[in-house]
Amino acid sequence: ARKLRLAIAAADDDPDQIDELVRLPDEVWSAVDANAVALLNKVRGEARAALVVVFERRGAAWRARSELRRPDPVRRARAADLLGILGRRDAVPALCDLLKDADPDVRVVAARAIGRIGDPEAARPLLESVATRRREVPAHLVAHALAGLGTGAQPALVHGMDSPRESVRAVAAEVLG
Predict the structure, then answer these.
(1) Which residues have CB under 8 Å from 110's CB, separation 6+?
(2) Residue 136 and residue 150: Cα distance in Å, rounded?
(3) Which of 76, 65, 81 is nearest to 100 (CA)?
């Protein structure tokens, strides 16, 4: 499994190798899963696309979506992180819900995942997460996530400049600047 994963990471995206990784028994895949996720963060281009295909075909995104509602905050955070790494736009509404999670680490991971995905529709929930009492997301993390949303987030940021909350105005001004 390791040899196949490294071959794909080296941009040797032979469809047979991808199929072989997808067909690995679950117990073998679980031994390399964490390393494969770490590799997704390090590779770009065709190699990354090939690894994403492997994760998608193995049902990783589907499982991660179901993990977002688990009682264990570590599982919720890992799931949010994976969905962000995979760039799953369809997960953005669920990730926005996690911005209000009881666990602060889950909120942070959700904000980072949203920033990685880059869906401008998440700009308002991200801005609002700065102003949520007792469950806020740190302003610098929200600013970084908002910057990842690109120019499509500009209307929400301009709207944020009129917020009654100073923290929202500050983050909006920082990102617009």
Answers:
(1) 80, 95, 96, 98, 99, 101, 137
(2) 22
(3) 76
Q: In angstroms, rounded to a whole number, what is the distance separating the alpha carbons of residues 16 and 36?
A: 18
- Give the predicted TM-score (pTM) of the model: 0.87
On whether the CB atoms of residues 151 and 121 are closer than 8 A, the answer is no
CA distance to 27, 38, 117, 135, per residue, from 175 (Å): 44, 28, 17, 21
**Interval 130-153: pLDDT, tens:** 987 788 899 999 999 999 999 999
Distance, in Å, from the CA atom of 27 to the CA atom of 15, rounded to the nearest integer, reads 22
Amino acid residing at 123: A
Q: Would you state the structure tokens that stand for residue 22, as one six-digit string?
A: 């997808």
Structure confidence by residue, pLDDT tens digits, 99-125: 999 999 999 999 999 999 999 999 999
Six-digit token string for 17:
């190798």
Rounded-to-integer distance, Cα 57 and Cα 21, Å: 10
